[in-house]
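User: I'll paste a sequence; please echo it back and then give the predicted structure.

Assistant: Echoing your sequence first, then the prediction.
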Amino acid sequence: MLVVDDHDQLRASICRMLRNRLEVIGEASNGLEAVEMTREMHPDLVLMDVRMPVMDGVEATRLIHEEMPEIRIVGHSAFHERELVDEMINAGAERYLIKGELALVDFVSSLNRD
């Protein structure tokens, strides 16, 4: 899994929480880094923040999905605007989570059932 978020402390917290459940192979702080790291590492899953500098999560998701459609992308954000959710899904994200520990734990649990 690749974890993408522009907030260093939040990204580190997400990684700590997920490391016991999934293999976190990398971290990126913006969409451009996410695209480059996905090309290099080819993770099974990318947890993608939506609003970031340099390249936002929508554009990064679109690029990754076009080049590597087999990679699962899940958008996550503190924002729950319908338009933003639709943009991420239309760009290729399979899900959209509101930031928070419970949402991530529920999501990871659902992966283990798949």
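The chain has five helices and five strands. The first helix runs from residue 8 to 19.
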